[in-house]
Amino acid sequence: MRSTAVQSLVVSARTDVIGSLWPVRTLIGVMLTNARLIGDGEVRVGWLEIEDGQVVASGDGMQDGLDLGGRYVAPGFVDMHVHGGGGAAFTDNPNTVVEFHRRHGTTTCLASLVTASISELVGQVVALAPLVESGLVAGVHLEGPFLAAARRGAHDPDLLRAPDTASVAALLDAGRGTVRMVTIAPELPGALDAIALIVDRGAVAAIGHTDATYDEACAGLAAGATVGTHLFNAMRPLHHREPGVILSLLESDVTCELVVDNVHIHPALAAGVMRVAAGRIALITDAIAAAGVGDGAYLLGGLDVTVNDGVARLTYGGSIAGSTLTQDVALRNAVSAGVPLPDAVAALTVVPARALGLPAGTLEPGRRADLVVLSEGLQVDGVMAGGSWIAQEFLV
After folding, report:
1. What's the pTM value of the predicted model, to 2 decimals?
2. CATH code for 77-356?
3. Which of 271, 283, 297, 368 could form a disulfide bond with 347, CB atoms 3.0-4.6 angstroms apart?
């Protein structure tokens, strides 16, 4: 039962439903105090005032309000690359995916789609567009079909293709402006023109699933690509005589995704890259439907996937097939690897938001009240999305 002190802090509250997903407690006004606020490269003791779904003020020290007992407060996590979770994919039950990841701190995400035929992808984009327009998800990410067969990972090789402007335009048109990112291999015929078209239409072009040489990757960047899809994974490895795409991404000013599940890359490498490319690393989950469900058999874009000990791999061939990661676990993994907490939080919040051009990832006054309350051990104790509590363990 809540204390009377907590009750008195809520100016007005009501039980509501957001997008018919789940019951939440909507706060018209609340003051959160005695919190360790994470942002701008530091952790400071302070307070946040929230009204009508927005952060309206913040400051150092203490105020009368809902005492968080010194818990950390971070901006809501932003996942720019996620396919599913909670037993569902975005192509079959997007509400389930969003609900699952929100309870792990992700308040903003893209709906990532794997390789399919152009007609099938058009249908998927059309189905997701209203959910983007309603605010359930922040955009659609097309991870395929314009990928290199040699670095296809868990994408159906029979459906991979070189890009042509007609196909790219059809996908962008289907989204009505909701396709926010497209992953493409820059060495493919027509890729540079496709990258230019993607950028011209207001979306982000990402380099990934690529066997590009260093020069080919640099050409993709010059054409307008500004993101590297899951750095190191599904791309030509770094070599001293042919540095390939990895060096081209690291020496540029683009944002690079990392999957810090201690499977995709070694934790020491993750920490090292975050030092080398400080402020340009976005931690992603690349999660599939198996996240939060457990080991077993799954499908990813029509391909059979087996999850064993939490690691997802193609049943036939053994390639890593996304992950079962959540962003709160990615945070703990990064910090355990030696990444300073403010840097790890930035990689989950402001860095991906900035890469996508989204007004998210900070606790600044005037921004939507998306935040995560974390324990000393960085466990999720509470999640607020748009001023509504999705989870609030610290009030139980």
Report:
1. 0.93
2. 3.20.20.140
3. 283
